[in-house]
Amino acid sequence: MDVRLRHWRSPEIRGIDRGGIAFRAAVLVVWRARGTVRALWDRAGHEARLGAVVEAAVCRVVSSAAPDPDGVRPPRDPEALAEELTATVAAECRAVGLDVYAVRPLRVEFVPGTSFRS
């Protein structure tokens, strides 16, 4: 059984904020499976669930602040962003037996005039 701390780096997460400005972000997550029974589960399954939760949280949290009147995104305090992301992801993952200790933004870029399509 492996209950060590894990580090997971997200792929590029793309979204649109409330002001219509496209952004892309990447985060680093420090986590572990809680308890020995949960640790027996497949690590890839944990990372898949973690990835879905992280993507949704990043899109919600990053897009929550309105842009300034000129349409240019004001800089956001990285520590405040990390705290909000950590609290959001930790709360959602707690129910499925994952302890999340930190969600740190590695990059958040706003790209005015860009539309991301899959």
How is this structure best described in words?
With about 120 residues, the protein is α+β, with helices and mostly antiparallel strands. It has one domain: Tetrahydropterin Synthase, Chain A (2-Layer Sandwich), CATH 3.30.479. Helix content is about 35%, strand content about 30%. It has helices at about 35-40, 45-60, 80-95; strands at about 5-10, 15, 20-35, 100-110. Strands 1, 2, 3 and 4 form a four-stranded antiparallel beta sheet that branches. Strand 2 and strand 3 form a beta hairpin. Helix 2 (about 45-60) packs across helix 3 (about 80-95). The longest helix is centred in the middle third of the chain and has 20 residues, at about 45-60. It is elongated and about 50 Å long. It starts with 5 loop residues before the first strand and ends in a 7-residue tail after the last strand. The mean pLDDT is about 80.
Concise overview:
With 118 residues, this protein is an alpha+beta fold.
The whole-angstrom Rg is 15 Å
Strand fraction: 25-35%
Which H/E pattern describes the elements?
EEEHHHE
Number of strands: 4
- How far apart the termini lie comes to 38 Å
Which of globular, elongated, flat, extended, rod-shaped describes the shape? Answer: elongated
If helices are DSSP runs of H or I spanning 4 or more residues, what is the number of helices? 3
CATH top level is Alpha Beta
SS content category: alpha+beta
State the low-pLDDT regions, or none.
none
CATH architecture descriptor name = 2-Layer Sandwich
Question: How many separate structural domains?
Answer: 1
Average of per-residue pLDDT values? 82
